[in-house]
Amino acid sequence: MKQCKSISTIIFLVVLLSFMIPSMLVLPISSASTMNKAEKTPQKMEERKQTNVLNEKEAMTVAVYRAQTEAIDNLPLEEYVAGVVASEMPAGFEMEALKAQALAARTYIVKKLMSPSHHDTPKDADVTDTVQHQVYKDSKGLREMWGKAYEVNMKKITEAVKATEGKIMTYNDQPIFAAFFSISNGFTENAGDYWGEDIPYLKAIESPWDKQVSTFLSKKSIPIREFEDKLGVTLDHTSDIGIITARTPGNRVAKVSIKDKEFSGRDIREKLDLRSTDFYWEKSGDHIIITTKGYGHGVGLSQYGANEMAKEGKGYEEIVRHYYRGIEISSSDAYLSKQVARK
Question: pTM value?
Answer without folding.
Answer: 0.81
